[in-house]
Amino acid sequence: MSKRALLEVIALDAEDAIAAQAGGADRLELVTDMAADGLTPSRADFAAIRAAVDIPLRVMLRVADGFAAGDVSELVRSARELRAEGADEFVLGFLDEAGGPDLAAVEAIVDALDGCRWTFHRAIDRAADRDALRKQLAELPGLDTYLTAGAAGGVDEGLPTLVGEAARSGEPGYEPRLLVGGGLRLEHLARLKAAGLDAFHIGGAARPHGWGRALSAEAVATWRGAVDA
């Protein structure tokens, strides 16, 4: 099995997906509406992207901007519809008003995923207590990744936290892989890789001309080379 580092890229549609795979992405995070920081794509969009590429797809489950769950029944319904379409990896994460994990919402959605693998996204960077959140979620089936910048302000601010958490890999609550994303830049990679981190997530970095323009296979290839260096 290949031990190269994971490069995950945000894709909005099949065109993005094809370009990201051509550039060397290992996995895609599928979302819609980046003005709201990424919401659940439609079943039809998932099907089109699944038909266009053969790399793994993680599908966002989120109905509104922010880290409150909102309509949990809608999230559960979307999860089931996407599962029926063939989706088998997901991204989700919600906080309660106190800044802890919204366990009722997360557990309801995870139950609908029926054992699928999933990422707890950057809600962890807004949590009141990151360590407590990890331990509260530790027994949930399928959780294998935390997407995190280490801090709400992004990787610049969160680097020390990321390095510290990487050193705790394997401890209770720290078994899931750290997927670094959120203000990630190429110059961060050396320190992150030196700390043992081996999974990286990009969105805007794959679109040098902005979200209104096509994803750049060349930009993804630059990241692929840097991640592998």
What does this structure look like?
- It contains eight helices and eight strands, in the order E-H-E-H-E-H-E-H-E-H-E-H-E-H-E-H.
- It has 229 residues and is α/β, with parallel strands linked by helices.
- Strand 4 (89-92), helix 4 (103-113) and strand 5 (117-120) form a beta-alpha-beta unit.
- Helix 1 (14-23) packs parallel to helix 2 (43-52), helix 1 (14-23) runs parallel beside helix 8 (217-228) and helix 3 runs parallel beside helix 4.
- The protein has one domain: TIM Barrel, CATH 3.20.20.
- It has an eight-stranded parallel beta sheet with strand order 7-6-5-4-3-2-1-8, covered by helices on one side.
Mean pLDDT rating: 96
Strand order, largest beta sheet: 7-6-5-4-3-2-1-8
CATH superfamily: Copper homeostasis (CutC) domain
Q: What is the helix content?
A: 25-40%
Which architecture does the CATH hierarchy give at level 2? Answer: Alpha-Beta Barrel
Q: Biggest sheet, open or closed, and with what strands and sense?
A: 8 strands, parallel
Task: Please compute the radius of gyration using only Cα atoms.
Answer: 16 Å
Q: How many domains?
A: 1
- Uncertain runs: none
Count up the helices.
Answer: 8
Number of strands: 8
Alpha-beta classification: alpha/beta
**Helix and strand run:** EHEHEHEHEHEHEHEH
CATH class, named Alpha Beta
- Tell me the β content: 15-25%
The span between the termini is: 19 Å
